[in-house]
Amino acid sequence: MAPLTVATRALAREAASRSLSSTAARAFSASTAVRDAGSYSSPFKGEQKSTQIPDWTKYASKGSWNTNSLVSYFMVGTMGAITAAGAKSTVQEFLKNMSASADVLAMAKVEVDLNAIPEGKNVIIKWRGKPVFIRHRTAEEIDEANKVNVQSLRDPQTDEDRVQKPEWLVMLGVCTHLGCVPIGEAGDFGGWFCPCHGSHYDISGRIRKGPAPLNLEIPAYEFPGDEKLVIG
Ligand code: FES
């Protein structure tokens, strides 16, 4: 029994010494950590100045409140005026670019020398891309146009309503059916005939027969003088 007791005591002693050494190691590392924590210094330590509001007094105006306001109003007003002028110039340039050019404006009106059209003859001119018929009518043709019973027409219109001067008939050469160009001095009524589908117009350009629903259209025109006609 005695040898076992001795061996047991030796083992207990050994375990105790190991336990003590690990406890001592933990105590040493803890004391080192405490010592390190005590020596920690924050990078922000002593930087309270960064949170202070800067001193702007040396930039502050020395003038009175009225003077300062005047300068502010002047600056705002000047900038506003410059901005308005720039905007006006931009809009003006834009509108100038969008408006019709000189050659397009020239095409808007066409001047015709009436001396060049003998009585009883047709002339076709181009205006805004469309044909315009100008007929120098004879006295017989004017009589014939006035004799028609207006109430019997598909598109009732007196000859008087269609001309400014009885001897001059001016109208668009575009068939009111589907837009063909009628032929002059043709058809059953001595006026114009559209061969596309057989529409007949009389000497006043009124529809008399065929599928066209309306008379030939009268454009805007005027006589600035006895020998001049301006269309448009
Ligand atoms: S387009 Fe003239 S009759 Fe049809």
UniProtKB/TrEMBL annotation:
Broad class of where this protein is predominantly found: mitochondrion
Entry membrane topology: Single-pass membrane protein
The protein's required cofactors: [2Fe-2S] cluster
Keywords recorded for this protein, A-Z: 2Fe-2S, Disulfide bond, Electron transport, Iron, Iron-sulfur, Membrane, Metal-binding, Mitochondrion, Mitochondrion inner membrane, Respiratory chain, Transit peptide, Translocase, Transmembrane, Transmembrane helix, Transport
PROSITE patterns: RIESKE
GO terms under cellular component: mitochondrial inner membrane
Cofactor note: Binds 1 [2Fe-2S] cluster per subunit.
Pfam family for this entry, one: UCR_TM
Catalytic activity: a quinol + 2 Fe(III)-[cytochrome c](out) = a quinone + 2 Fe(II)-[cytochrome c](out) + 2 H(+)(out)
Regions annotated as coiled coil: none
Rieske domain residues: 135-230
E.C. no: 7.1.1.8
Cell compartments where the protein resides: Mitochondrion inner membrane
Molecular-function annotations in GO: 2 iron, 2 sulfur cluster binding; metal ion binding; quinol-cytochrome-c reductase activity
PANTHER family named among the record's database cross-references: CYTOCHROME B-C1 COMPLEX SUBUNIT RIESKE, MITOCHONDRIAL (PTHR10134)
Further details from the record: The Rieske protein is a high potential 2Fe-2S protein.
Family: Belongs to the Rieske iron-sulfur protein family.
UniProt protein name: Cytochrome b-c1 complex subunit Rieske, mitochondrial
Organism: Neoarthrinium moseri
Source taxonomy: Eukaryota, Fungi, Dikarya, Ascomycota, Pezizomycotina
